[in-house]
Specification:
The structure holds two protein chains of two kinds.
Chain A: E1 4-6, E2 10-13, E3 19-25, E4 31-38, E5 42-49, E6 56-57, E7 64-70, E8 73-78, E9 87-94, E10 103-104, E11 108-112
Chain B: E1 3-5, E2 10-14, E3 19-21, E4 24-26, E5 32-38, E6 44-50, E7 56-58, E8 64-68, E9 73-78, E10 87-94, E11 104-105, E12 109-114
Parallel strand pairs in B: 2-12
Antiparallel strand pairs in B: 1-4, 3-9, 5-6, 5-10, 7-8, 8-9, 10-11, 10-12
The chains are: A mainly beta, B mainly beta.
Chain lengths: 113, 115
Amino acid sequence: DVKVTQSSRYLVKRTGEKVFLECVQDMDHENMFWYRQDPGLGLRLIYFSYDVKMKEKGDIPEGYSVSREKKERFSLILESASTNQTSMYLCASSLTGANYGYTFGSGTRLTVV
Amino acid sequence: AQSVTQPDIHITVSEGASLELRCNYSYGATPYLFWYVQSPGQGLQLLLKYFSGDTLVQGIKGFEAEFKRSQSSFNLRKPSVHWSDAAEYFCAVGPNNNAGNMLTFGGGTRLMVKP
C-alpha cells in the first residue's frame, strides 16, 4: 500500500523554536506539497517541490522554508515558531500529471505555546 | 485561474437519508475533478475522480459524483448515509494536461450525521 508518512502526529513547541516537520513517501513521486489547514480556511499551500532540490512558494510561504535533498523526503521548517503557526500541517505527494491526484499523509497537529 | 466553491460549510443529515454535497468550479477547459474525505484528525483520502468519459463516476464507500459541464458542477452524492460518513469533504480541481498537476481545493463541507 502506497504511503505518505509524517513523522509526528502531534507536536508542542515553544515560541521562537526552530521546528522541523518531516514527510516521507514511498511511491517514487516527483511532486511533494505542504499545506496547512485551519478551521474555515480550508487547505492553504505553503510550498511545493517538483524535483530534488527544487522548491516553489505556494500561497502562504512567509515564516516557512523547505528542504528536499532526496526524492522521497520533503521537510517543512519553521525558522522561528510563532503562535499563529499553530495549525494542522498536511503533506501530500503526486506523480506528474493531473490525472493522478494527490496522496496525503495523516497530518501533524502543531501547537506553538 | 482555477477556483473551487463549496457553498455549504456545514450539512447535517439523518442516518439513512440521502446526501448531496455541492461543488462548483471555475476553469477554462474541462478540468480534472476530485473529491476527498477527511475523517477527524486524519489526512485526506481520495473518494473519486473524474477525467473524461461517463459523467457519473463511482467512488469508494458508496459515493458517486456527477460532472455537469453546463453548470460547472461536480456534486457528490450518496443514497443512504451512515454514521461513519461524518467527516469533512473537499472538492478539488486540476488542469487537464500533463504539464503540471497543481490542485485547487474548495473550502470544505463538514458533514454531521444524526442518529
